[in-house]
């Protein structure tokens, strides 16, 4: 009885404590339709409220956050927040507030964050924010504010971030932000700003971020506007109507790292417009109407890393425009009106890796030959991403990319001949023939042959010539094409094919004379030169293989036969034979081959920066005398699949997989043996147990032996003897075939129920 009273008392105490907690001040004050579960946060968001809810009792001091966003509150009265004097954050966003009483926030002296965005008020009465001396964040974005006065921000010395974007502000008056000495971030984008007073940003010496995008400014002329923003690092002036940028307007912005002038109407930048921007790293001036980039305009941008001139009308870029930009990494000139660029324009931009020239009307003539050379060299050193230069003129090359155009096809057009090099550079055999000339010393004659796509024709000196001369190459002009074709037909009759190598050669010997391509060393002075890279690929490159495949790298190996007796050595306009490796994604829609060049005696190249889990086709081809074959030799290609992220080298992976497979098979075999042993052991155990527990009737009650009373109980023997005695005399004595084995529990049945007959006791 005492125990029951004690438990009843405990239950009553718990119920009383629960009632005390539920009626504690932390939740008893909670207004209707609000959530007060968190002691510091009063949550009234999205509750359909039309006014600020009133607390039922005194608001506890621990309530610091009041969220009223997403309701239908229209007015803020002078008494709505008088009981919330300890608030640190007040959120009134996404309501329909049209008016705010000047004394609405008078009691919120501890408030640090005030969010008034996405409402309908057109002005904030003077003095409304005066008591908010600790305010650090003020958001009044996306309202209908038209005018700002300096009195509005009085006493806000601690304000760090101010958002006034998405309003209807047209003018920034003199010293309108003079009280905001601690301001770091100022958002004024998406307004209707047409005029900014030259002292509008005075006293903002700590401002780091200024956004004036999406406004209606027509020019940037006055250097005093930004003169006091000495700490500014980001200035956004995009999406305005700016047509002109004057001299020295940014000269005091010594710490500015990003300047955006995108999507304006700028047609002219004064020569000193960018002066003083010594720390600028990113300049965005895309989407304007610039027509040229003159020399000296960008020279003051000592630390610039990214330039974007996309979507202008630029048709001229001075060859020295980027010469001083030692840190330039990204340059975008896409979608302009460029037709040509100087070959050495990027010669001093050693860290440039991302160059976007797509979408211009490129004229693929000899003026682009140097640019092509620079791109090839930069690609071979892994310094440059793929550059798309798609030919627009002439019509015969329209749609082709400069990487795939022969140097021989870059012919001078119109009156540009004087700008082209007098000597043609390395030529690529791509589809049009290359005129090759050779001189015969003996008779002073000159032989001409045409090298085709698959390079059936080479040029050799006459066998009687005391010296082997290097072939000279000249580009075919449209006028000389018929003559070259005729010369090719004449040379065809003198073609011979070596039976051993299959090399086609064009000899300049008299009719009936013959020579062997692979001569002995004593006749080396008369050997023909192999200047056709297609022939070189077929007969001298062997055993292309891949190894050490990872998720982003692979090593390519190949073997070359001795070719020094048959290929031209270094000379004027010619390089020694070297190799380039073409690698391309296989089976993917976005395909564009890249090349890596291996010079010297190297017979392996490691490709890097590959994509993981992608199929690639890799081909090795020779570069003979500066020329390459049109079609990569498929006999010298290999396919590979890069590993997914996290996998190790290909060779190690293969061996690891083999080891894992062997280990798995061995483990399975051991497991099968163990399972078989366990099963066999259990089977034997069951048999032994069955033998031990079984009692053989014939051993117990054999008619040939006397009954052993020690084996069974008296009742059992009596039952069984009565069964024996009931057998007819003609069946006695019992035969061994009539005896049945019964388990012991049959005889030791303790069931007291008597069976109807003796036969039912033992029959199943």
UniProtKB/TrEMBL annotation:
Domain Fibronectin type-III: 540-646
SMART domains: LRR_SD22, LRR_TYP, LRRCT
Region (Disordered): 431-506
Signal peptide positions (record): 1-23
Family matches, as Gene3D superfamilies: Immunoglobulins, Ribonuclease Inhibitor
Listed InterPro entries: Cys-rich_flank_reg_C, FN3_dom, FN3_sf, Ig-like_fold, Leu-rich_rpt, Leu-rich_rpt_typical-subtyp, LRR_dom_sf
TM ranges: 659-681
Pfam families: LRR_8
Alphabetized UniProt keyword annotations: Disulfide bond, Leucine-rich repeat, Membrane, Repeat, Signal, Transmembrane, Transmembrane helix
Residue ranges with Gly residues bias: 446-458
SUPFAM superfamilies per UniProt: Fibronectin type III (SSF49265), L domain-like (SSF52058)
Designated name of the protein: TLR4 interactor with leucine rich repeats
């Amino acid at each position: 009885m005492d125990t029951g009273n004690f438990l009843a008392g405990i239950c009553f105490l718990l119920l009383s404590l629960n009632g005390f907690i539920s009626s504690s001040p932390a939740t008893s004050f909670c207004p209707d339709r609000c959530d007060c579960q968190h002691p510091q946060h009063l949550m009234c968001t999205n509750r359909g409220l039309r006014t600020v809810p009133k607390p039922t009792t005194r608001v506890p001091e621990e309530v610091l956050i009041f969220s009223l966003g997403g309701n239908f509150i229209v007015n803020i009265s002078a008494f709505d927040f008088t009981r919330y004097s300890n608030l640190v954050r007040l959120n009134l966003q996404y309501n329909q507030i049209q008016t705010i009483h000047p004394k609405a926030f008078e009691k919120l002296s501890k408030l640090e964050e005030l969010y008034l965005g996405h409402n309908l008020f057109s002005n904030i009465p003077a003095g409304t924010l005066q008591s908010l001396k600790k305010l650090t964040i003020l958001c009044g974005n996306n309202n209908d504010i038209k005018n700002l006065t300096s009195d509005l921000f009085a006493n806000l010395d601690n304000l760090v971030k101010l958002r006034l974007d998405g309003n209807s502000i047209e003018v920034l008056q003199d010293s309108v932000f003079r009280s905001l000495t601690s301001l770091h971030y100022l958002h004024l984008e998406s307004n209707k700003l047409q005029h900014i007073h030259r002292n509008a940003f005075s006293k903002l010496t700590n401002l780091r971020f200024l956004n004036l995008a999406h406004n209606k400014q027509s020019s940037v002329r006055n250097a005093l506007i930004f003169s006091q923003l000495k700490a500014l690092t980001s200035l956004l002036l995009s999406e305005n109507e700016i047509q002109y940028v004057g001299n020295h307007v940014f000269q005091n912005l010594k710490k500015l790292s990003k300047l955006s002038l995108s999507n304006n109407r700028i047609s002219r930048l004064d020569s000193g417009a960018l002066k003083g921007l010594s720390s600028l790293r990113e300049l965005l001036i895309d989407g304007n109407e610039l027509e040229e980039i003159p020399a000296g305009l960008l020279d003051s941008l000592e630390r610039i890393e990214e330039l974007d001139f996309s979507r202008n009308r630029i048709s001229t870029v001075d060859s020295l425009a980027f010469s001083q930009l030692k840190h330039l990494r990204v340059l975008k000139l896409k979608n302009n009106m460029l037709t040509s660029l100087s070959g050495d324009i990027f010669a001093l931009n050693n860290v440039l890796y991302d160059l976007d020239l797509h979408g211009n009307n490129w004229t693929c003539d000899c003026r682009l030959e140097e640019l092509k050379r620079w791109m090839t060299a930069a690609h071979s050193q892994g310094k440059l991403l793929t550059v798309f230069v798609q030919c627009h003129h002439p019509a015969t090359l329209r749609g082709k990319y400069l990487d795939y155009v022969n140097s021989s096809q870059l012919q001078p057009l119109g009156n540009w001949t004087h700008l082209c090099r007098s000597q043609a550079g390395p030529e690529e055999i791509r589809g049009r023939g290359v005129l090759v000339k050779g001189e015969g010393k003996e008779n002073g004659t000159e032989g001409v042959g045409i090298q085709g796509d698959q390079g059936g024709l080479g040029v050799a000196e006459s066998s009687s010539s005391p010296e082997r001369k290097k072939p000279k190459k000249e580009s075919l002009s449209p006028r000389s094409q018929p003559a070259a074709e005729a010369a090719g037909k004449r040379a065809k009759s003198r073609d011979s094919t070596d039976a051993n190598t299959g090399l086609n050669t064009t000899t300049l010997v008299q009719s009936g004379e013959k020579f062997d391509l692979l001569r002995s060393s004593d006749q080396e002075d008369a050997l023909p030169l192999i200047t056709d890279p297609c022939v070189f690929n077929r007969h001298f490159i062997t055993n292309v293989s891949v190894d050490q495949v990872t998720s982003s790298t692979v090593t390519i190996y190949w073997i070359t036969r001795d070719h020094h007796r048959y290929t031209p050595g270094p000379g004027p306009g010619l390089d020694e034979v070297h190799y380039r490796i073409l690698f391309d994604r296989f089976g993917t829609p976005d395909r564009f081959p890249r090349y890596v060049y291996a010079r010297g005696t190297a017979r392996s190249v490691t490709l890097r920066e590959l994509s993981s889990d992608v199929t690639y086709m890799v081909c090795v081809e020779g570069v003979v005398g500066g020329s390459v074959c049109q079609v990569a030799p498929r006999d010298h290609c290999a396919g590979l699949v890069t590993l997914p992220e996290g996998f190790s080298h290909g060779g190690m992976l293969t061996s690891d997989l083999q080891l894992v497979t062997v280990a798995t098979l061995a483990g399975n075999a051991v497991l099968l043996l163990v399972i078989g042993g366990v099963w066999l052991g259990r089977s034997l155990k069951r048999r032994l147990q069955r033998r031990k527990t079984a009692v053989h009737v014939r051993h117990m009650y054999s008619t040939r032996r006397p009954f052993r009373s020690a084996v069974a109980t008296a009742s059992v023997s009596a039952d069984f003897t009565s069964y024996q005695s009931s057998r007819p005399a003609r069946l006695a004595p019992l035969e061994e075939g009539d005896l049945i084995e019964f388990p012991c529990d049959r005889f030791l049945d303790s069931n007291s129920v008597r069976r109807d007959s003796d036969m039912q006791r033992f029959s199943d």
